Amino acid sequence: MSPRPALAAGRSERPRSTAPRARPGPDDLRRTFEAAPARTSSPDAPFADSWWGRAWVDALEALSLDGARLARGRAYADGGHVAAVTVTPGRVVAYVHGSRARPYRAELRLRTFGDTGWGALLDAVAAHPGHLSALLAKEMPHSLADTAREADVRLLPGADDLDPSCSCPDHGRPCKHVAALCYQTARLLDSDPFVLLLMRGRGERELLDDLGRRNAEHAARERPAAPAAPSVTATGALAERFLPPLPAPLPVPPHPGQPPSYPDLPGARDPLGLDHLATDAAARAHALLTTGRDPIAGLDAWQDAVRIAASRPTAGLTATTRALYRELAHATGRNTTDLARAVAAWRQGEAEGLAVLEEPWDPPAGPFDRARPALAAAGHPRFQPRRNHLTHPDGSLQLRFGHDGRWYGYESDPGADDWWPRSAPAADPVTALEALLGG
Alpha carbon of 149 to those of 115, 153, 298, 344, 393: distances in Å? Predict the structure, then answer.
């Protein structure tokens, strides 16, 4: 039977983006990686991209005396013939599809470290904080392997570390199926050097916990001892003594300061957005210094987003303002139309104006009940009441009564029920309506 067809066309870029994904095992000492797709690459191109992945391939090739078996093993790995790979301490196992219908079980054993070897290695690594940072970034610097050698631990394998076996009848060391498994393992190592450390006997979580503890202990030993604090008797601490007066506070500047300019760097936040946030923070700080009151104290995220948007210039929406509206709307789960309507309400009456827009309520008897006769006496048609709203009969104008006792003017296309805040609020409904009509 012909070899199993390739699973899919792969890419020859850095295996970090194409390496098989690991399925979680029952604990930190077993990792299973899904079968990798086929890839297209030149037979002369290095199979691994990282230097530690190539060192693994070098160990495999030093183990074999038959270049033809290695070439067929690489072809199997390139063609996607290696099924899911399981890695445990000292072992790598996978089924490899060869020329027969039934796949062969290929296994590679690797010498693990004992407690003494691990202790020496981890102590040496903990003394170099950069090693831990590199491992967290899924990198293995050359200096880490050098540190391991200094601790008399060989992290990267040699040919004498590898012990292959396979269920096929070929007695080569290794056969083409184990060679395919070894090449596929190089792809796993390219993506995650913790796979090599698991082969040597320790799982990622255990290693990181141990390295973090040893790193902290090493830092504590290297940190100079703090000088002893001078002591004083209780009598001396409570004795009366002259204290000079505090200096006068610095004068409050008349205006908030200008924020620094932010460079436009790749991957960084929009510099104009940062400029706006810094300007807003400076204005808040200045208001707190001059009035003792934080202007946004008690606002929720939506109210604060509306406040920030309302602080932009009102004469048209520039590209920067439109970008700000999009970001604020996305961050609060609203759309830009909702935000624009809320901004108009905020400019009417800040937080109270926004509440008038979004929170209908039932006002008590009194000013609300006297509003309709007052409007009729001024020659206006009979407005229809609903909760705290009075609506013109043609459905184009509306007055809303706020908790602050003021009337807020709204306008909509007749019959559209699409109300927008329009005029400044007033203490009596007739003035508010005339402002609305005049606007």
Answer: 16, 5, 60, 69, 89
